[in-house]
Amino acid sequence: MRLPRFLFALPALGLLLAACESPLPKVSYPELRFNHLPLIELNVARIDIVEQYRSPLRSPHVEHEIPLAPAKAMRSWANDRLRAVGSSGQARFIIVEASVKGEPLAKKKGLKAALTLDQTARYDARLEARLEVETAAGLGKGFATATAARHRTMPEAVSMNVRDDALYAFIEGALMDFNRVMTTNIDRHLTPFLRPR
């Protein structure tokens, strides 16, 4: 007995429909590093990194949900750029804040809403750190601080991958701001503790 041709096509159709339903592959993002930048050499025996900031892990905080965690990137900054080159004394790099808050924005209504692409969310990032230096036996102390803040909005109807790409670039930009401010303030306030470059 011969089966109708359409019955042979059913399994292939099922595979095609299943393929259409599969989610987009998750993008893997690189760790942000700063080892291409000049070292900041401190005349101390050791440098400790202290994460003072603790994310609340709840709305409106989203730093734990985005592809580039600010606190991790700030730790990488300290590991890549700061070097202890002395025989005594210590420094502490303290991550005071590494927050990103996400807030939904009100959508337009009526005819204007149909003709425009709304911005549906706003993200605010704030990075703050303090570098404290103390030489042996309390012979000298100094500190430098840096704060960087940025915000951006996100349009409606973007895919998760496009949103994550935009947020990665957003936090990367905030870290570059932080790097510039902290480098300037170290040169300005911690010169006695630096090995000349």
Please describe what this structure looks like.
- By secondary structure, the chain is α/β, with parallel strands linked by helices.
- It has a single domain, classed as Double Stranded RNA Binding Domain (2-Layer Sandwich).
- The protein is built from four helices and six strands, in the order αββαββαββα.
- Strands 2-4-5-6 form a four-stranded mixed beta sheet, with helices on one face. The protein has a two-stranded parallel sheet with strand order 1-3.
- The protein is elongated and about 65 Å long.
- The relative contact order is 0.18.
Q: Descriptors for this entry?
A:
single chain, four-stranded mixed beta sheet, two-stranded parallel ribbon, 4 helices, 6 strands, 32% helix
Number of strand elements: 6
Please tell me the overall pLDDT.
86
- Any idea of the CATH topology? Double Stranded RNA Binding Domain
What is the beta-strand fraction?
25-35%
Structural class: alpha/beta
Offer a concise description of the structure:
The protein has 197 residues and is an alpha/beta fold. Helices cover 32% and strands 29% of the residues. The chain has a single domain, classed as 2-Layer Sandwich (Double Stranded RNA Binding Domain), CATH 3.30.160.
List the helices and strands and how they pair.
Elements: H1 5-21, E1 40-42, E2 46-51, H2 70-81, E3 82-84, E4 90-104, H3 111-115, E5 119-134, E6 141-155, H4 160-189
Parallel strand pairs: 1-3, 2-4
Antiparallel strand pairs: 4-5, 5-6
